[in-house]
Structures are given as structure tokens and as C-alpha cells.
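Late entry, written up from scratch paper. The run itself happened at the end of the previous shift, but nothing got recorded in the book at the time, so transcribing now.
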Amino acid sequence: KRAQENNENSVDRRHKRMMKNRESAARSRAGKQVPVKADLPLLCCVLLSNGIRDSLKAERRMLESFIKSKVRKQLRH
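Output as recorded:
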């Protein structure tokens, strides 16, 4: 009878430990998601500014190319 009680206690302890581990893992996952949600507006701003920067770089290259071609034409005449 005593062996059976020890076995039941062992199973209960194992079950409690497993449940605590699951709860801890759930808290850990939830904690990792919070900063992502909090930084979403910042991430949007960064992506937008990167897109604007890339567009401006492309526009600048086009303007520089246009100016160089105009200067070359004027030097020929």
C-alpha cells in the first residue's frame, strides 16, 4: 500500500511540475511577443523612412545623370 501511495505522489508531483513548466513556457512566449507589438509603430516608421531614403537616392542618381548629360551637350557646342 505504501509503494502505491509513493507512486501516486510521484505522479502528482510530476504532473504539477509539468503544468508549472507549461505555464512558465506560456509566460515566456507571451513576454517575447510584447516588445514586437510595442515596437510595431517604430518598425513602420523605420521601413517607411528606408523606403523614402531609397527613393531619394534613386532620384538623386537620375538627376545627376541628367545634369551630366546636359553638361556634356553644352561642352560639345
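The helical segments are 2-38, 40-76.
(Scratch paper discarded after transcription.)
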